[in-house]
Amino acid sequence: PDNQKIRLWYQYYPTMFSSLLFRRMGNSLRPSLRDYSRKQAPQLMSTPAGVGASYSAFKLTRSSSTDTPVDFEVKELQDDAPGIVVFAFNRPEVKNALGRNLVAQMESAIISARNSRDTRVVILRSNVPGVFCAGADLKERKTMKEEEVGPAVARGRQAMTDLSELPVPVIAAIDGVALGGGLEIALACDMRIMANNAKVGLVETRLAIIPGAGGTQRLPRLVGIARAKELIFCAKVLSGKEAQDIGLAEYAVEQNEAGDAAYHRAVEIAREIANKVCGMT
After folding, report:
1. Could you confirm whether 181 is annotated as catalytic?
2. Active site residue 204
């Protein structure tokens, strides 16, 4: 019976199962769990279609239908410092709002990164100029049945937890707007690099709700309890420079004409981690 419970638990909560076992029993379980994952959940390891970047260590969940949009792109940076992987939001029509398809593809990317022995650093960025992530896709949520809303919210929250628990450094490169759930994703990363003209904030109280994906817990750890309460209660929006001043961002860089200055600074840091800290030179 106990083994049956474990199998059912893994079937429905694979990422939580893996994380708990890693914590309790150490990294020696990684190979066996990776093999178990491939046997029990092969859909998580299917090959992406129609994506031109290098995927030497990455295989993402994709529908066999060519109509399925790629809302969350993944590529391995072709660089002199190997092991740098770039995650990128790619929903320009809704400012990278966190819909079900995007969250599902992000989950697959996180699982692949966790199981890869080649990954040294992950950079999280946006392919959409001027926008990092606008938060939850509330328009999509309105179309859901009542019983679907809770699981959808929980799935997004779990994806951010899984991102925060990746065994490699994760750097958020914020070159535009990151509001609500968009900032919560950045808070789940190890470092945040922002353009000085970026706009960030947990603005859910404007809609009479509260941050629901870890922002109420992670923000105080960075800026202090009182400051976090002010930012959340007042739904304040900060510039990248203001975020750096209070410790929310490690760097606020001058934006360039291409609108990707934060990403370039993140790549510099990722190279330093891959080369020096991980001994890749």
Report:
1. yes
2. yes
Q: How big is the CA angle at 160 (ends 154 and 165), to the nearest 5 degrees?
A: 125
**This prediction's pTM:** 0.74
pLDDT digits (tens, 9 = 90+) for 5-37: 444 444 444 444 444 433 433 333 333 333 333
Q: What's at 109, amino acid-wise?
A: A
Q: State the amino acid at position 130 in one-letter form.
A: G
The encoded tokens of residue 243 equal 């975020």
Sheet of strand 238-239: strand arrangement? 131-133, 177-179, 199-201, 238-239
- State yes or no: is 184 an active-site residue: yes
Residue 15: predicted pLDDT: 42
Torsional sign, CA 191, 162, 88, 46: positive
Catalytic residue among 76, 107, 184, 242: 184
H helix runs in 44-99, sequence order: none
Per DSSP, 247 falls in state T
* Residue 77, strand partner residues: none
128-139 burial, b for 16+ CB within 10 Å, e for fewer?
beebbbbbbbee
